[in-house]
């Protein structure tokens, strides 16, 4: 633009010299047009956002990065089991997390496609990389101002880290450095918050398992041994609480949502077990095969909730169609790589490609019946 504008000015000056004195009116018109055109060009050049790199038109637009989050519980304050949802609180939470949820879904979809076929979907990996770098440079999710936000971020951080791990080959070295630093900063803050509440149930229940998964993943990606170790400690915290019958006491206390929370808790624990095994850690035998007992109890309760309803004293509020959804059982595709299950998988969706959970990352190839 600068070169073009200067050329235009030069041409205008030459034109002035060539114009006859008798043609002053024509000169005035030519000069006015040239000046106006030159000014327009320079005005465009100096627009504040003119140097901004435009997003790839092939990529889905990601939402504006949320730097600060201030979420609160969705459950009624007068319910000790924290199983009764307050509808107004749920709507506020959903609105607060709208951008984060959308971001996670977009990069998760790109990561899934890239993981399935990297060669054909290389641009998808690049799209996710651009989105991650945009949020990283903005410092998204670095100001968590409520306890709920501080301790529930692990769920979303796990999903972001899984997606990043899948598409990392398509991310430039410069963007990798930015993204690594960003994820590590969030994970270190999470680690600090957990260490400050060692004896709280929040550092011993399902929340901690998701936080542990996030810390282990980020530790693995950034070669931070302290974070990785904290993640594996969260695994031990979970599986070493598993009772003889295979249940998790803190999740049993959730009343009518006990089964839902067992399904929610087992997913990150299975992923942590797999991560540990990849690093030579014998996670499955930990605490007398706690993870195996937990999986068996959760599957059995999903098939027949009689035992868990007896333990809780509440009828479970998960209908069979919801209990056996692909999202709730995606973790099984990871688990069966290491352990057999004593149940038929016939109750799962016939289309195994539906066994997906965006928070657990791209899934391995689904087995046939």
Q: Structural class, please?
A: mainly alpha
- Enumerate the strands of the largest sheet in spatial order, edge to edge or round the barrel: 1-2
The CATH class designation of the largest domain is Mainly Alpha
Name given to the CATH architecture of the largest domain: Alpha/alpha barrel
N-to-C order of helices and strands: HHEHHHEHHHHHHHHHH
**Model regions low in confidence, pLDDT < 50 over at least 5 residues:** 1-53
The major beta sheet can be summarized as: 2 strands, parallel
N-to-C terminal Cα separation, in Å?
Answer: 63 Å
Q: Given the structure, what is the number of helices?
A: 15
Q: Please state the CA-atom Rg, rounded to the nearest Å.
A: 28 Å
- Helicity, in percent? 55-70%
| Nearest-integer average pLDDT | 84
- The structural domain count equals 3
Q: Quick one: CATH superfamily of the largest domain?
A: Chondroitin AC/alginate lyase
- Shape descriptor reads globular
In terms of DSSP E residues, the strand content is: under 5%
């Amino acid at each position: 633009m600068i070169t073009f504008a200067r050329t235009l000015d030069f041409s205008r000056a030459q034109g002035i010299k060539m114009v006859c004195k008798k043609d002053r009116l024509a000169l005035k018109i030519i000069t006015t047009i040239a000046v106006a055109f030159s000014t327009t060009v320079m005005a465009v050049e100096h627009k504040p956002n003119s140097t901004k790199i435009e997003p790839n038109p092939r990529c889905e637009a990601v939402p504006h990065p949320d730097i600060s989050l201030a979420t609160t519980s969705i459950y009624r304050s007068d319910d000790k089991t924290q199983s009764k949802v307050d509808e107004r609180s749920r709507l506020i939470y959903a609105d607060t997390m709208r951008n984060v949820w959308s971001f996670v879904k977009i990069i998760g979809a790109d990561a899934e496609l890239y993981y399935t076929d990297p060669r054909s979907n290389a641009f998808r990996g690049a799209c996710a990389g651009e989105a991650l770098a945009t949020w990283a440079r903005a410092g998204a999710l670095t100001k968590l101002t409520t306890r709920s936000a501080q301790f529930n971020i692990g769920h979303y951080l796990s999903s972001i880290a899984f997606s990043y791990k899948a598409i990392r080959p398509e991310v430039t070295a410069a963007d990798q450095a930015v993204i690594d630093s960003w994820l590590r900063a969030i994970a270190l803050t999470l680690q600090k918050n957990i260490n400050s509440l060692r004896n709280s149930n929040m550092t011993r229940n399902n929340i901690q398992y998701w936080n542990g998964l996030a810390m282990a993943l980020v530790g693995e990606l950034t070669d931070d041994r302290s974070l990785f170790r904290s993640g594996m400690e969260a695994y031990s915290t979970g599986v070493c609480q598993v009772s003889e019958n295979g249940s998790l006491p803190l999740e049993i206390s959730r009343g009518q949502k006990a089964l839902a929370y067992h399904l929610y808790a087992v997913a990150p624990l299975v992923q942590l077990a797999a991560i540990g095994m990849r690093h030579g850690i014998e996670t499955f035998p930990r605490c007398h095969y706690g993870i195996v007992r937990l999986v068996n109890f959760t599957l059995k309760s999903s098939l027949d909730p009689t035992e868990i309803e007896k333990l809780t004293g509440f009828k479970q509020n998960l209908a069979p169609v919801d209990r056996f959804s692909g999202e709730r059982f995606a973790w099984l595709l990871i688990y069966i790589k290491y352990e057999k299950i004593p149940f038929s998988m016939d109750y799962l969706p016939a289309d195994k490609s539906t066994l997906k959970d965006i928070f657990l990352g791209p899934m391995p190839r689904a087995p046939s019946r």
